[in-house]
Automatic annotation (TrEMBL):
This is Integral membrane protein. The keyword 4Fe-4S does not apply. Coiled coil: none annotated. Keywords: Membrane, Transmembrane, Transmembrane helix. It comes from the Bacteria. It comes from Faecalicoccus pleomorphus. The chain crosses the membrane at residues 12-30, 60-79, 91-111, 172-195, 201-220. The keyword Transmembrane applies.
């Protein structure tokens, strides 16, 4: 019998979130300071480079986005249980609604405002998204960056070539779909940035709104009986 998954574990939800993440990455790189706010590897590298070359004030600045990312992760661990007591929506659904709210506000912030403000805001919500959505139909997935998806796509292909492992190939193709979704989001957002400037981030509200509807419907209809069930990977 096929396993039943919570709405927040379904693959289409992860693809939509990855699409939105591609948009956030393109937006911050093109319009908000030439950085990627979806993950923190670059910030750690830049902090090390700055400190190592004697640019101490610049190096210490990177503690701000790193701390914002860390705070997002902590809050996304602490909030699910209190939210569960409301018994209306699951934490995942509230989080997507919060992302929509934050990105709507970001679209109103002029490009003349210090880019660090928007960078920190997107760092915060990207961290919460990454920490909240962990497995798509039992497959560990990240929804804000691509490195592991690229690795898993390659592994799936190699295992199929060597062992004709259909299950490994299917898993690899699932990761490939995430990569393509992220890329598509970046392409769409890059084009939007040319026309809409700071409001280009509002394009990312479309996949997030669809995600919110899918999650809310799941909470109300399908998952209500499983409100205490913890998503896989948590």
């Amino acid at each position: 019998m096929k396993k039943e998954y919570l709405a927040c574990e379904r693959r289409e939800v992860f693809i939509l979130l990855m699409f939105a993440a591609g948009m956030m990455g393109a937006y911050t790189f093109i319009l908000r300071g030439g950085v990627f706010c979806n993950a923190q590897t670059a910030n750690f590298v830049m902090m090390g480079v700055s400190l190592g070359t004697g640019k101490f004030s610049q190096g210490l600045y990177y503690l701000i986005p790193i701390t914002a990312y860390f705070a997002g992760m902590i809050l996304s661990e602490l909030l699910p249980n209190p939210v569960k007591r409301i018994h209306l929506f699951r934490w995942d659904t509230y989080l997507v609604a919060f992302e929509i709210f934050v990105l709507f506000i970001v679209g109103w912030i002029p490009l003349t405002v210090n880019h660090h403000v928007v960078q920190v805001m997107i760092n915060f919500i990207a961290s919460m998204q990454y920490n909240t959505f962990r497995q798509a139909e039992s497959i560990p997935m990240a929804t804000t960056f691509c490195t592991n998806h690229l690795r898993q796509t390659g592994l799936g292909l190699i295992h199929y070539i060597k062992k004709r492992d259909i299950k490994a190939l299917s898993k690899g193709l699932a990761h490939l779909s995430m990569l393509l979704s992220f890329l598509a989001g970046g392409i769409v957002e890059a084009a939007a940035c040319l026309w809409l400037q700071e409001r280009a981030i509002w394009i990312a509200l479309l996949p997030l709104l669809v995600t919110f509807i899918l999650l809310a419907c799941g909470d109300i209809k399908e998952d209500h009986r499983d409100f205490q069930k913890i998503p896989s990977g948590h």
